[in-house]
Amino acid sequence: MKRSQRIILLALLLASLLPATSFAETSSLFPHRKQKPAFYLKLYYYTPSYNYIGSLRSDFSEGAFRFFSHTTIGAGYRIPIWRSLYIQPEIHYGIATNWDEAAQKTTFFGRVIHAFNIRDYNYFDIPLYIGLRWQPITLFAARAYAGPLVQFSLSNKQFGLVGQYSLTCGAGLDLFNFISFDIGYRVGMQELTFLEETSIYFLSASFKL
Question: What is the DSSP-derived secondary structure letter of residue 47?
Answer without folding.
Answer: -
